Amino acid sequence: MTGKVLLVDDEAHITRNLEKVIPWEMLGLTVAGVAKNGAEALEQMENTEFDLMLCDIRMPVMDGLELVRHLRNKGSACDIIMLSGYQDFTYTRAAIQCGVKDYVLKPIPYDELTGVIARIMSGRRSKQKRQQEEKQKLGRIIDLASEKILYDVIMDYTDVTADNWLLTGDEQQLKRKKFVLLLFDLLAGTEQTKDWRDWPDKERKLWNFAVCNVLREALRREGHHHAVIQIRDGEWCVLIETDESAAYDLPVVEQWTKTLLAAVKEHVKLPLFAGIYREFASAEGLSAAYKQVQQGMQLTPAHDDIAVYPSGQQSARQADQALWDAAEDMLGAVKRGDAAAADGHLAGLAKKLQQMNEPSSDRVKPLLHFFVLHLMREMKEMGAFPKEQEEKLWRRLDRRFDIKDLLAVIRQVTNAVSEKSADKKKQSERSMAIAKDYLDRHLYRDLSVDEAAAHVGLSTSYFSLLFKQNFGETFIEYVTRQRMERAKALLLETPKSVAQIAKEVGYSERRYFTKVFMKYTGDNPTDYRGKERGGEA
């Protein structure tokens, strides 16, 4: 990119010579403005951003030093070379104090001036490159943190209200963003996925990881600002941020979805199905939008590769919705380990089925079958039963049978969990105690929920659920709170710098640490240290 230069001198022949003699194009620059005094220069700089200014000191109306002071007071980042026929050191010192990069005496030695310009612009470009790299690095950190928060928002474990102190800096913008929501799923009950069900856990984890990477890379190539969030084994939610003024364009969204499906099929060799939420979703509406798409995909017996939800058909079937809601209530009780509530919900589900007219059974059976598949996948996430028992249940589901048989499978699954509920609860408490100890010992480095879940041998989704149930806050909320409390103690009890403390509590980027700390305490780290220590004195 060509940089812009402003020449400021009341002697017209000097600015003409500068334009002609200096090899601006070779230096990657172009003369974009000429002014006779500081006032004219200021006026031009209101409308144009210059990278370099060559400026005389003595000029009518406004001299060079006064111009430089004006620019520095405004926060201008333009580099400045002063030109002067005065050798008095007072001028040189005043110019340096104003942040001038160099000082060249008249008559102008053009070769020397060319070298000075080349050196200054090389330094400027290096600085801009570092700043861009730091900005990208900070952006990646914020994106990763946003993905962690977005998972909790989608699962309805946290919210995006102003009270949520985790929404710092750029993440605060989540509340004002709108998203395209896509859900990619591996249908566990199809012929194509029977091999997948037999894969060892390690192989499936690698496959899940590969799908995430393929989706992210495809989205990056398309230039989308995005988040890819694995919800459970074989299910991924993709969120694409859009311009606030953009209108929802379904054909465009469908094309994006086709591109992503093709990328996964090409690189991972296993076809997925996709569901599209038919309008933009706000941050507050993400959980509801995700549930509508997931439910639509689970309840549709015949799947196209891509479908849009909610469909007109889907919203019209109120009886189906009531049945699914009852089944979801039962699933929630099972996941909480509440055996009594699970039995009660199962009895209610059976009663609803008995009350339905016989002709509706052909419609209800596929609905119930898909719910059983949904239940099986959730129980698999929980590690609710041994591999051998799981395989028997899958084999039963592969056969054709009626509603009574489907209810029997549901009862078998819930009984299997209920029998272990007491043991499961104790095991969960032990797992969470181990996880807490692990987190407290590793706050100094970047910790992911996947790593913590793997440490205690749980799936990420089930770990997140148990963590919220046990500690009353999400994984990211807990880790961030502990880090901030540790940082507060280090600020008050040690002379360590803010950058050192940021690294000690797990933040490689000081500016991001400062943003989080300010949201948590209301002060930046330096002010917090001064205020608290001053209060003690």
UniProtKB/TrEMBL annotation:
Pfam families tied to this protein: HTH_18 (PF12833), Response_reg (PF00072)
Keywords tagged on the record: DNA-binding, Phosphoprotein, Transcription, Transcription regulation
Lineage: superkingdom: Bacteria
Modified residues (4-aspartylphosphate): 56
Annotated Response regulatory domain residues: 4-121
SMART domains: HTH_ARAC, REC
GO molecular function: DNA-binding transcription factor activity; sequence-specific DNA binding
GO terms classed as biological process: phosphorelay signal transduction system
HTH araC/xylS-type domain location: 433-531
SUPFAM superfamilies in the record: CheY-like, Homeodomain-like
Name recorded for this polypeptide: Response regulator
Native organism taxonomy: Bacteria, Bacillati, Bacillota, Bacilli, Bacillales
